[in-house]
Specification:
The structure holds four protein chains of four kinds. Chain A is of the alpha/beta class. Chain A is about 35% helix and about 20% strand. The chains are: A alpha/beta, B alpha/beta, C mainly beta, D alpha+beta.
């Protein structure tokens, strides 16, 4: 890849369980304002915009209509990716390399607190003919996947609980986090069972928030920013969508997406060449499953590594120093945006108490949640 | 920047009610597209999917549900979405997957199954309006079209009888399209006598709701030259969204289509669109909309589109044929697949493979355009053979 | 290098010169995103609404065959010879190689093994159930396909991954040609 | 390769709505409950509160001097926070209008049975900037006598009936 692309500006409103005082317009506007000031640009300079929105999580049946105003993208090239934030980031990356414009802006938003029937909306994503008639909670899909994962890799529920404890503790020092608390593994293990072996604490509560990221190609990035964060590799993959045809134990989507990103970044030994990672932990076991899928841990090694504190901030491979979905909140389409934001802040040295020492390369990985098998990975370095 | 060509295309029949599930419709179109250029699924490096509101097929995160039908099994797969403009945004999204150098081949699929919505797909359009300031008035999409058509007519003094000619032209053209749902020989009087939906819009002024899918295969230059001897190059892309406050804009002229077409013309190096574009497929969900978009696309001066229609310039035999395929009015309007059907029409016309829809005189430069949302998005693709 | 419009194209009429000039914007020192915010919590309001839609999904070509046979107490799959894969429930295409499978329907029997299972305490609306149900992914014997269904006539503690089960159908007259024609799967003796 | 009728014929199977209703074709029904409570935010919040008081309020952008309705916290063209709140009149002119015989579910109104067609319109509100309109209904006027530029005035619900919604204005009628 001759030309390189860097992230030169980030902006967020932070993530809280509810944001009653602002509508989605003001929420996005605030994040965009901060990102543009951080990058030192104006909407006029931006060549293309990508917004991330899924209709039923916004409450519109065409959600992209309401994206241009808040970003200053009126009468400009903007479109919406109903996917994960990192899908949009990849779109912006490709648009810059195709010469659509030297600067691109990516936006994502979560207003989950406005969704009164959230569980039913997720059920509405399941196959209407073979799965929905059973009228079971979508959490049963996570429960079944967790059961198969524990069975195949020998990981224990205590190790999954350790993930919850670690992430909620890390979130305490993250000013943007919405669900931080100090608890022990017993609390997680004894919390109410939702869909065995998944308990209430294994599931990340949702949060509201917005993230805007500004990308720029090589020279423009160096001209505008003194600390550009380079996109070294990016990958995304959709595995088979059917519950009847998928692999229930492994996260194949994360494996393929990661390999694509590693190939682009020229990485052969992810465990050594990557310093830390923000990994999707919408459910506790997912962090472990994704670690193993991305060759950062061998099969069955993620649980023990977490147990001995290997993934703590002080551990050998820090994971989710920000608190992850469990500590910050599940942001649905914006999950990837939060991961990218936290990796950029770590690489810029802006995370305060959670700051890792002399890190150069970070990985952000996301998953689109139940019932999808769509995963994304991006590798950033300063 | 790498040149990207369309090398293959496939489409399903368009029906008001199809039995197939959305996955099966997507599969049929994708399979035909791959067979048309003798490529296997393993030759495809990434898949791009365009489909409009999930509220039609009735499946949340519809992009993921359709991934296996679109040939995206364990491949990089991404959905894009700009309402009605999705169909022509599909090749644009696919174009920069290849032009960026990330991939050499890309499968672009567009699908829509509107008949799942019960009792009528129109109900899904209630929730495209602002949920607080407009939805309590229970608006429907036909109102906003009629509001725009009224403004368009009262600004330029166009008459309904002239605008009705678009329906006559497109439905006659559609008689030759294999997927057509409403090909018919009608007269202006039929259009004016058809029942009033929302004056000034009558029933024959509107394109039907349909189920259908379409797919095309894109390839980088070195692959395209090996796969086909007649690659059709995507030389210009452009898209733009206007503000969502549609009541604050003067609806007589589509600024967003002008901005999108300027971007595409600049990229394709076109200075005189009305002369250099030989064939066009403007978006025609409603009769007046084709004229509205012809003006936005700079293919004629403002207020001159009806005269152009009356002079027969936009007939198949005219020197700037518009909607030779039969357009949404004739072939059918499964929202996202309509846009891709238009891109396919230009692909087939420039290769001289449009059968009895083929316009005379070898056209070498064509344009497809789609519109969407609250009178808000213009997506334009310029193609050359 | 910032892209500027080429001189030959006449400038856009009307709102091209959007007044977002560099000098006017953002130079007013710290620019708070919003000049004003709610000061009293009682001023904060929201607007309730819904997306009022209902749906009828046709089961599709493969579904017609699969569910007509389900009424007769048979489970249909389709075989892709190229990938040596049998899909359950039947599909008209192979997602791996895109081969057409419409003339490869076969009866795959009603026996299978528990691939994974769970005890779910929540309904699809997120409401707590009094009595949990056992939901399971059942691999149909001799195929690579699964069915997601309930387990019956067994206690949750007794269920294990790999347990052989078989389908229990509703009485023939109650079958309507949908996935609920199978009541549940029960352990085979 | 030309796309022929034969190639396309088997790609889809035509159905009629009756076949599905009568069950000749198998189908599954589903009615999702998709309910929301959208936060209004300061701009729309104040707009609805003022509607409850029988007033229409707009907000001014200090850079492009547009007085915007419905009010918004930032000007989408200048991309700067908006400033002054300004009360505007409840009169206006018809920018464009429709005489609709169908409702939002594409159901036809019984026009012959004397039901008045809907006459929604974009109404430019006096006091707001030129061309700054809102969507609302027209009534107490012959649907075929409406013309572009017609002066209209809002007809409000009684104060008790008003709930802080756009429907607090019943409709606009000719001045």
């Amino acid at each position: 890849m001759a030309k390189r692309v860097a992230i030169i500006g980030i902006g967020t409103t932070g993530f809280r369980a509810t944001t009653p005082d602002v509508s989605y317009r003001e929420l996005t506007y605030e994040a965009a304002m901060k990102a543009y000031l951080d990058a030192g640009i104006e909407p006029k300079d931006v060549g293309s915009f990508v917004s991330t929105a899924e209709d039923f999580f916004e409450g519109y049946s065409i959600a992209d209509e309401y994206s241009p105003d808040q970003l200053g993208a009126v009468l400009k090239p903007i479109y919406t990716v109903p996917g994960d934030f990192i899908h949009s980031l990849a779109s912006a990356y490709m648009m810059i390399l195709s010469g659509i414009g030297p600067i691109s802006v990516v936006q994502g938003l979560s207003k989950a607190s406005n969704m009164l029937t959230l569980s039913e909306m997720v059920t509405f994503a399941m196959d209407p003919i073979y799965n929905r008639p059973l009228k079971e909670s979508p959490h049963s899909v996570a429960g079944m996947e967790m059961a198969r994962f524990l069975y195949e890799t020998g990981t224990t529920r205590e190790q999954c609980a350790k993930v919850v404890v670690k992430n909620k503790k890390n979130a305490l020092n993250n000013p943007y986090a919405g669900h931080s608390v100090l608890i022990d593994t017993d609390y997680v293990l004894n919390s109410q069972v939702v869909s065995y072996p998944l308990t209430q604490m294994d599931i990340s509560p949702h949060s509201d928030g917005a993230v805007v990221v500004v990308l720029a190609e090589d020279e423009t990035a160096k001209a505008l920013s003194d600390k550009p964060i380079w996109i070294r590799g990016i990958g995304w993959c959709s595995d088979t969508p059917g519950l009847e045809t998928r692999n229930w134990g492994q996260a194949i989507y994360a494996q393929i997406a990661a390999e694509m990103a590693y190939k682009m970044a020229g990485i052969h030994y992810p465990r050594k060449e990557i310093d830390f990672a923000e990994i999707n932990d919408e459910f506790s076991y997912k962090e472990l499953q994704h670690l193993e899928a991305m060759r950062i841990c061998k099969k069955g090694e993620a649980g023990p590594l977490t147990e001995i504190g290997g993934t703590e901030i002080t551990g050998e491979f820090p994971v989710n120093t920000s608190g992850g979905c469990i500590g910050v909140g599940n942001l649905y389409e914006l999950n990837g945006g939060h991961k990218v934001l936290e990796v950029v802040r770590q690489l810029r040295g802006e995370t305060g108490k959670n700051q890792l020492k002399n890190v150069t390369t970070g990985l952000a990985q996301s998953w689109r949640g139940i019932p999808t098998t769509a995963g994304t990975v991006v590798i950033l370095s300063n | 920047m790498r040149r990207v060509a369309i090398v293959g295309a496939g489409i399903t029949k368009f029906y008001r009610n199809a039995m197939e599930t959305p996955k099966e419709l997507a599969y049929e179109a994708t399979k035909m597209a791959l067979d048309s250029c003798e490529m296997k699924l393993s030759d495809i490096e990434c898949v791009v999917h365009g489909t409009a509101p999930d509220a039609f097929d009735g499946i949340h995160m519809k992009g993921e549900y359709l991934s296996d039908g679109s040939g995206a099994y364990r491949k990089p797969y991404m959905r894009h979405y700009v309402g009605g403009g999705t169909g022509v945004l599909s090749p644009i999204h696919g174009w920069f997957h290849v032009a960026s150098g990330m991939f050499d081949t890309c499968l672009v699929v567009a699908e829509e199954k509107m008949s799942s919505a019960y009792p009528h797909p129109a109900g899904a359009f209630l929730t495209i309006f602002d949920h607080t300031t407009e939805q309590p008035l229970y608006p429907t999409l036909i109102w906003i079209f009629a509001i725009e058509m009224n403004r368009f007519m009262t600004t330029w003094g166009y008459k309904k009888e002239d605008i009705a000619l678009v329906a006559v032209k497109n439905k006659r053209n559609a008689l030759d399209h294999p997927s057509a749902q409403l090909g018919a020989e009608i007269t202006v009087k039929d259009v004016l006598d058809s029942e009033i939906m929302a004056w000034p819009v009558n029933r024959l002024d509107i394109s039907p709701t349909s189920d259908g899918a379409a797919a095309i295969v894109l390839a980088a230059e070195h692959v395209a030259r090996r796969v086909t001897e007649k690659p059709i190059w995507i030389d210009g892309v452009g898209w733009a969204l206007d503000t969502a406050y549609w009541c604050t804009r003067d609806l007589y002229y589509p600024d967003y289509v002008e901005v999108a077409s300027r971007q595409a013309y600049k990229m394709a190096g076109i200075k005189e669109p009305s002369k250099e574009i030989h064939i066009a497929e403007p978006y025609d969900p409603f009769t007046y909309k084709e004229l509205h978009h012809i003006e936005g696309l700079q293919l004629c001066k403002r207020g001159g589109s009806v005269q152009m229609l009356l002079d027969g310039v936009t007939q198949r035999t005219g020197n700037l044929p518009c909607c030779p395929s039969g357009g949404a009015l004739g072939v059918g309007n499964p929202i996202a697949a309509t846009g891709l059907m238009k891109v396919m029409e230009i692909f087939l016309q420039l290769r001289g493979e449009a059968g009895n829809r083929q316009v005379p005189g070898r056209p070498t430069c064509g344009l497809a355009q789609a519109w969407g949302d609250l009178m808000q998005v213009g997506t334009v693709v310029v193609m050359r053979s | 290098m910032i892209v500027t419009p080429s001189p030959t194209l006449p400038p856009l009429r009307g709102r091209e010169s959007l007044p977002a000039g560099r000098q006017g914007w953002g130079d007013g020192g710290e620019t708070m995103a919003l000049i004003e915010r709610f000061q009293k919590t009682t001023d904060i309001t929201y607007w309730e609404g819904q997306i009022p839609m209902s749906y009828i999904y046709t089961v599709g070509r493969a579904g017609e065959k699969f569910f007509r046979e389900l009424i007769n107490g048979k489970v249909l799959g389709t075989k892709c010879d190229a990938c040596n894969t049998i899909y359950v429930p039947a599909k008209i295409f192979c997602e791996k190689c895109f081969a057409r499978l419409e003339d490869h329907y076969l009866d795959v029997g009603t026996k299978g093994t528990v691939h994974t299972f769970t005890e779910c305490y929540e309904t699809y609306e997120g409401i707590r159930k009094e009595k949990p149900s056992i939901v399971s992914v059942i691999q149909i014997d001799g195929t690579q396909g699964y069915l997601v269904h309930w387990l019956g006539e067994v206690d949750f503690e007794k269920v294990y991954i790999g347990m052989p089960v078989e389908a229990v159908f509703k009485p023939k007259k109650d079958r309507e040609g949908n996935i609920l024609d199978i009541k549940y799967f029960k352990p085979t003796k | 390769m030309e796309i022929t009728e034969k190639m396309v014929a088997k790609t889809a199977t035509k159905l009629s709505a009756e076949e599905i209703q009568k069950g000749e074709i198998l189908s599954v029904k589903w009615t999702p409950k998709l309910r929301y409570a959208w936060d209004n935010g300061p701009a729309i919040g104040r707009y609805l509160a003022e509607l409850k008081n029988g007033k229409i309020i707009a907000k001014k952008c200090d850079k492009c001097h547009r007085i915007m309705i419905p009010p918004r916290m930032f000007c989408e063209l200048c991309w700067v926070p908006t400033g002054e709140w300004i009360y505007v009149k409840d009169t206006g002119i018809v920018n464009t209008w429709v005489v609709s015989y169908v409702d939002w579910k594409a159901g036809r109104l019984d026009i012959k049975g004397g039901v008045r067609p809907f006459t929604p319109a974009v109404i430019e509100i006096d006091g707001a900037s030129k061309g700054m309109g809102i969507l609302h209904h027209l009534n107490e006027v012959d649907p075929w006598k409406i013309y572009r530029g017609m002066k209209v005035k809002a007809v409000w619900k009684s104060p008790e009936e008003r709930a802080g919604a756009i429907t607090d204005i019943k409709y606009f009628k000719p001045l």
